[in-house]
Amino acid sequence: MSVIQTAFVAGTRGAWRIERITAVTGQALAQADRLAVVGPGEAGEVAAGAQWRLDGATGHPRYATRQELDTLAAVQQGLGRPEARCAALIPIRKNPAWWALGQDERRAILEEQSHHIAIGLEYLPPIARRLYHARELGQSFDFLTWFEYAPQHADAFEELVSRLRQSAEWRFVEREVDIRLVQDDPTLQGVV
Question: What b/e string do you get for 29-61 counting C-beta neighbours within 10 Å, with b at 16 or more?
Fold first, then answer.
């Protein structure tokens, strides 16, 4: 798996119009009009008027089994589909208790107790997603979760997010911001 570095820059420029920014747990992010989703060398181009910037990078899968990875690869569609004009960026920070657990303990909470991967699979392929790791980059969030979906799948996305927030895993979330976006012109580039 190749690493994809991405910057989410909120301000006055970008392909995505920000509909709302909501603090689910902890402090919100500053309001902005647009979101640009760009590669590492392009962030400077949209930095003028930026309210905030979040950086993340894809990494190797940490909690998924080979069977789960194969199932995800077979079912999930890619990002940037023309019909997927809705998106959500959900940055999350877990508390120190989560990071004090061993990786096997985190996996048990994530999947055996919370069924995180299994729940996500129920909403594929209409809802595409990509996880970016930010903790190792010294960011204020541990994970940046990006979702894309067509407007007719908005209710399914709400159901997905609600189910995940009710899981045992979410007891460890100390900050979560829910950013909803829409792409007015589907010919504009979405996610890197």
Answer: beebebbbbbeeeebeebeeebbbbbbbeeeee
Q: What is the DSSP string of 97-166?
A: HHHHS-HHHHHIIIIIIT-HHHHHHTTTTTSEEEEEE-GGGT-S-SEEEEEEE-GGGHHHHHHHHHHHHT
Cβ proximity of 110 and 119 under 8 Å: no
Residue 151 preceded by cis peptide, ω within 30:
no
* Amino acid at position 125, single letter: P
Q: Which candidate, 154, 70, 64, places its Cα nearest to that of 117?
A: 64
Tokens of 117: 């991967």
Type and span of the H or E element at 178: strand 173-182
Tell me which DSSP letter residue 31 carries. Answer: P
3-state secondary structure at position 89? strand
Residue with tokens 């209710």: 155
In the structure encoding, which two tokens stand for residue 27, read together? 């402090």
How many residues in total does the chain contain? 192
Contact 192, 6 (CB under 8 A): yes
pLDDT single digits (tens) 66-102: 888 788 888 888 899 999 999 999 999 999 999 999 9
